[in-house]
Amino acid sequence: MLLVHKYGGTSVGSLERIENVASRVSKAREEGHDLVVVVSAMSGETNKLIEYAHHFTPNPAKQEMDMLLSSGERVTAALLSIALQAKGHDAVAMTGRQAGIVTDTSHTYARIETIDPTAMQNAIKQGKIVIVAGFQGVNKEGNVTTLGRGGSDLSAVAIAGALSADACEIYSDVDGIYTTDPRIEPKAKKLDIISYDEMLEMASLGAKVLQNRSVELAKKLNIKLYAKSSFSDNNGTLITKESANMEEVLVSGVVLDKNQARVTLRNVSDKPGIAAEIFTKLAKENINVDMIIQNVGIDGATHLGFTVAQNELERAKKVIESFDHDIKGMDFDENICKVSVVGVGMRSHAGVAAQAFSTLASSNINIEMIATSEIKVSMVINEKYGELATRMLHEAYGLDN
Amino acid sequence: MLLVHKYGGTSVGSLERIENVASRVSKAREEGHDLVVVVSAMSGETNKLIEYAHHFTPNPAKQEMDMLLSSGERVTAALLSIALQAKGHDAVAMTGRQAGIVTDTSHTYARIETIDPTAMQNAIKQGKIVIVAGFQGVNKEGNVTTLGRGGSDLSAVAIAGALSADACEIYSDVDGIYTTDPRIEPKAKKLDIISYDEMLEMASLGAKVLQNRSVELAKKLNIKLYAKSSFSDNNGTLITKESANMEEVLVSGVVLDKNQARVTLRNVSDKPGIAAEIFTKLAKENINVDMIIQNVGIDGATHLGFTVAQNELERAKKVIESFDHDIKGMDFDENICKVSVVGVGMRSHAGVAAQAFSTLASSNINIEMIATSEIKVSMVINEKYGELATRMLHEAYGLDN
Q: Which of A39, A199, A233, B93 could form a disulfide with B81 if both were Cys (CB 3.0 to 4.6 A apart)?
């Protein structure tokens, strides 16, 4: 089989851990597999480099940041290749550019446009284990680009697609996807299998095991994705396309996201297009708006509420302030969280949302915002009830058993 | 003027020092100069990465080492560009590849083959300060290469040549070239000017201010080279082509090199070509042989003596051991040093060598090997007399005044 492995920052966080990864890759090799291994920067490195840049300015140029931040993955790739060679394997380290990864020009948040897998294929044909520096590519002008946080997952999935790999295994310090965060609910259970769509909802809702864009891409390319731990031999969780028996499970997981802040714009003038203008401008600044609620105010003007990631609130404030000629007032609330239940079973079962609401009501937890999709129900509540709500929902949907 | 600056590892050894470099570059910019700035890795970084690699194997693959080691300069380049932008300048950081530096394929010791200066020229035309990661290029297969120790000096000089720059200023933690090492002889004086050839002899003899290959290239391209300190506003030393008035000075400097080891091969069979074979094989392993002396032994066989850098002795031993069917015995001596006097004035003045020998003889220092060129006299002596010999020669040639 041709396998793509990806090892995250914690898995390669020290020389001993890189040695450990080399042993794992070595074992897979000795089982007869062809291998491409994508690596992240050693844990802490990327943040260190960001701090370095922020020593000079809070807003360093993105092209410079990409040259800066892409260096960490190159170090890991070279070291892992050296470690494998020391074990007697033929290995070669490649940068994103050398692996043929061409992106658009959006520095620090580039999208992969094409992958020319020739160099990787040639190396594999020569019997080499290919090590690729994750998180990076090169744009048409020849400048290094990076793919945003968690971008090494995306590198791995895109490479798996370009090589028609049999599977893409994402290694981190957790051994799979759980029904909820075990630190909140010790009864949380590891899932053996989950659908792309469920995983997407789990990821975007705050489960940090897999980067969202990488799951989207795996779904699009129908790549078998495994979430595994580099510190154990557990099976991990397979993320794959939906199958009939998945629907027998009503709810697969409960996710708590505390990195949420709510923005409420009071009495937004009811001129058409104001909301569109606000959200367009937020999108241009790469601020992801999550839930949106619109109410009619007392004088006929509109109240507009939405949530953004807490760490993007300051930037969102700035964008909104440039619109204040059309807005009568605004509130910002960081003391909220979002708890969500996710499951493809919802498609064929009624009453899942109602059960969620009544579960929270039974403990007098006020639901401030609600958003639903075919396979999830999300509720914004006061932050202090987040863990309690998560545990109650986990029990209510029978995930404790 | 178009100036190329180069800042070494100590000059960019911390964020504060990068800030300091940004101020210096900024000042040169405000004086109206166009600028290309070549940077090394922050001091300690390259050694740290080498240690990392040696954690896995004493002999890591050179291609991997190049990917590993080239990352340090990229970090500095990006950070300096960010620091300059924070000061309101338009700056752009480039890797060796982006700066158009194409090398041969000798990983870890590549030679620059061509520089396509288009990207740098375009950036300069747009009013940008160009920051280039030193020490690195890319070979024709698209793999990153590095230029060997001190390679950033070479990057700077080669770029100065490709851009027809008016001068190339090499900044380090010393403010120029001295008549001898001031730690050995406090009366040592900074030279205002020195010829390329003198500098070449000084550099290859162990003066560590400028990398030898970079001086050779500066000579070939006739580039005005300045050795300056990034920690002072002193004038530094200009390294330039020889002029008539330079010859008025008999000796420009005295250099002590303690990184020397002597190899003596006893009774080498007098078959023609044995010596050639030994030195060819040493050269192939990139072991630089410095002084060579051949004597006839008692039985008509040849004694062959030569010196190598102390840190290359182990590798040299291995090479020589593969020849021992033709060699009756060998000695290795690390307790030697080489002291040399350098000066273009020797060309037109007789007796310089004789004065050196008699100076050492006056203190009963035995000279074990002698090598001379048109502009230098080198003597191998017992290591313990190194500093004494240096001071005596410094005084004998009137450099104390």
A: B93
